[in-house]
Amino acid sequence: MKIKTILTAVATATAALTIAGAASAGILDDVKKKGFLQCGVNTGLTGFSAPNDKGKWEGFDVDFCRSMSAAIFGSPDKVKYTPLTSKERFTALQSGEIDVLARNTTWTFTRDVNLGLEFIGSNYTDGQGFMVRKDLGVKSAKELDGASVCIQTGTTTELNLADFFRSNSMKFTSVVFEKADEIRAAYDAGRCDVYTTDRSGLAAQRSLLKKPDDHLVLPEVVSKEPLGPVVRHGQSEWGDVARWTLFALIVSEELGVTSANADQMKSSKNPEVLRLLGVEGKMGEQLGVRQDWAYQIVKTVGNYGEIYERHVGVNTPLKLERGLNQQWSKGGLLYAPPFR
Amino acid sequence: MADLSYVRTESHPDMPPPSSEVGILAWLRQNLFSGWLNSLLTLAAIYLLYKILPPFFGWAFWNADWNGTTYKDCTSGGACWAMIRVRFDQFMYGFYPEAERWRVNLWVVLLFGSAIPLLIENSPGKKYFAIFLFILFPPIAYLLLYGGMGLRVVDTAQWGGLFLTLVLATVSIVVSLPLGIVFALGRRSNMPIVRMICIAFIELWRGVPLITVLFMGSVMLPLFLPPGTNFDKILRTLIVMSFFSAAYMAEVVRGGLQAIPKGQFEAAQAMGLSYWKMMALIILPQALKIVIPGIVNTFIGLFKDTTLVLVIGLFDFLTIVQAATTHKNWLGTSTEGYVFVAAVFWVFCFSMSRYSITLERRLDTGHRN
Amino acid sequence: MAASSETQGSTPRVSLWNDPQKRSLIYQAIVVVMIVGFFGFVINNTADNLEKRGIASGFGFLYSPAGFDVGMSPFLTYEPSKATHGTVLIVGVLNTLLVAITGIVIATIIGFIVGVLRLSPNWLVSRMAYCYVETLRNIPLLLQLLFWYFAVLGTLPSKRDSISMFDTFFLNIEGLFGPLPVPQDGFWMILLAIAIAITAIVMIKKWAQKRQDETGQPFPVFLVSVGLLIVLPLIAAVIAGFPLEFEHPQKNRFGLRGGMIILPEFAALILGLSLYTASFIAEIVRSGIQAISHGQTEAAYALGVRPTVTMRLVVIPQALRVIVPPLTSQYLNLTKNSSLAVAIGGAEIVAIFAGTSLNQAGQAIEIIAITMGFYLTVSLLISMFMNWYNRRIALVER
Known about the structure:
Chain A is of the alpha/beta class.
């Protein structure tokens, strides 16, 4: 009769497996119904997403989640964060554990097409770079033949690195870690000559070294790394909300709408500003979010430039210039379609 | 003729033992310098202690900094305990909202309050504590920690620190005990298919490292479920850890079952007891009592193993301390962090292992050999 | 009552439910159905999910190019441009086996030493052994590994001022460098000589045993064996003209490259694993020795057997019977724990195959299944070997 218990165990297991609600048609409706947005972020990358002393998540990527929350709920704080390792991030999105993934993820063909994901754009254009100690006297990445390289596992960086050294017929030895903190500790101890990752990441890590000024980021950029938020494939409605949240951030900077002047701008003479802030037209309604969605985003979180300067700009420990992440009119790559 | 012979009429008072046989010198001689090999070993040991202890104490206490808000305040060259002080609450509660932390405290009090009487022999009302711990406590704990019924919901993403470590360890052990009993009984069943399935289950889980199991929980489990189903990450971790420890628990319980003399089974059957009555009333109470040390040891192992959730991005005690030591305010304090975590784990594990050793001695009826 | 009713009819009518045999058949049938149903449910879901999300399945990825570098591959030459995920798997397996075997050997040696010291009459020494055991086994292994790695890394000299030993071995933060032996033509002669030496030793041992049984004359097998193992290969080497060259590490702009390297990650892993496991082995050894009744030792002394010989021929063989079963599970634990290398940049199967390959190829199910299968196989092999050994030394009741 021992079987009974086993049956019970199996039954409970099966029952346990079938709990949790089944997915419904639209994520947007789901999110509105549950009253918060589940957002996947990095487990810890200074400037992009990291818990502060009080345990609150903050950073560039985190602010994208907050913008979406502002657009949908009119408050940036209706977000729950799921810290994800690079290994888990796609499964978490595919299985519906998170609604949107904002975790410095590179947009590549395979990921967009093969993994059932949809990149909604690029909110940070990056490229892989190299950091070395100044006293090595290395001035260019082409001089790195025979160097040992510290690198994070499970990233496109790892593949680019091998490609770069191969195409320049150079050799390298690699020291591979799972977490950025571990790589930094090893690099700082002198375990490897070179630290390679996206240049924004290098800046973040450099600011945390014992003596940041002893280190130098080499001029070469060996890859294109358009980092962007990701949603599940086949959810166009939800994808639109995410995509236009991003564009609203960019456009508001272009039009000069900031969190400080958002209220005054409501009486602006520029019709695009009025459409953006929801004074004219029915854009919010058509998108399925609040009518004043973009106003809420800019008012509560800020425009793209403000977010950039707050977390990664020249006045932060990361000291990143705008570079390619500048408005198109100023020589950058930020280019949002018109709001009409 | 005078009798010159002298005969003592009373015995001479006892001489004190030679100085080489008593006191500190003798002790030293017997225990430390009884031969050239021993003397050499002693000298080597003293040298080793001299090399290790003074620098360590200097670092940890005499030269340590206790106050400050960043690593720059730690100037005396010793340990920077200020980091632990500033972040202490976070290490204990993770990101649990400050206003709700009394719930965690209450949970800990209830947990220890009901578990400790169970572990003390002859404490009164053991049965009630057991019923409370295994039946009433789980839903209460769920309500307290997660929320509901008037309490604010605290999302599991905010759980962390030593609190999360304790949750992981206690929940898996409480779940794994009944599961383990079931599998142990199954393994000793005389139904071949049931036995084979149980053996396969136990050996499969025991043969693989916990890390792969955790990966399975965090990366694969979502793929096994109907599309659209999703689970909380901590719940997934709890599920795989419970199964993992259930396999070990099953082996511990099996050891206990095997130690019960056959006569007990036969006597129970002769009384006409059904299988379940026999197990529940005769066999298991005896078997479980013998295996309490084994259960405690499994728990110690599991408690230490919870640190592995580091690889799947949960902020348990070790991870949260590590995160603090890599924060820009506290660069270069990783040794302090590791020592602190090690000390806390050590206190827990050492006291538990002492307990299990005492228990083992008491339960040992001296029948061996 | 019940008995009388049963004796009345010639064939007692027992309901299906009360016939233990049939009942157990029904139960098992239900279990089988449930299990099959459960797996069917899981497999169905998985197939569904994979298809919906457009995730590839099958083992084809093992032949597709990996494109990344693994940190350490002492047995194979690993070229990132040519390697496939299959190569990564092989490298991972070999590295895991290397870590497991080295760790087991070192842990056993340290464990036995500490276990014996724990019983030493020297108060200070036995206390210190006790402290070692109680400290290490009550602290999580992962923590110890992190500590060893980052602590050891911090104290190693930088590449500029590596410590040099006889100008052949160099120690710096990138590891311990030494000459790599490269066999030349004629190396087979040395291998042959070693093989002959081993055969000879086995035969001598048998002969010595037989002679001792018959005449009581002991023969110094150990000394002779060592002599044979040194002399024979040496002669072969002289004849073949020393067919072994050494590749020395070369200095380049960044440090030393080439030669034989022991990486700090590998060293920290071995150190952490063996020290941790040794603390458990020490306790096993101690209780094993203590389990041998003192009368055995006294009897041996009474026969005039010297203490070292008593230990070797009387105490240890008996203690081994108690020691081997728990020792097996420690070996298994060490092997499984080697997977923690993932936290300190080691390059074993979980780190490079279930880590990097999984990330790049994205086929979680196949990769985790292969990894688990590997560990199961190793666990099984170790248990089989130790069970065989245990049977060999088991008490033969006469």
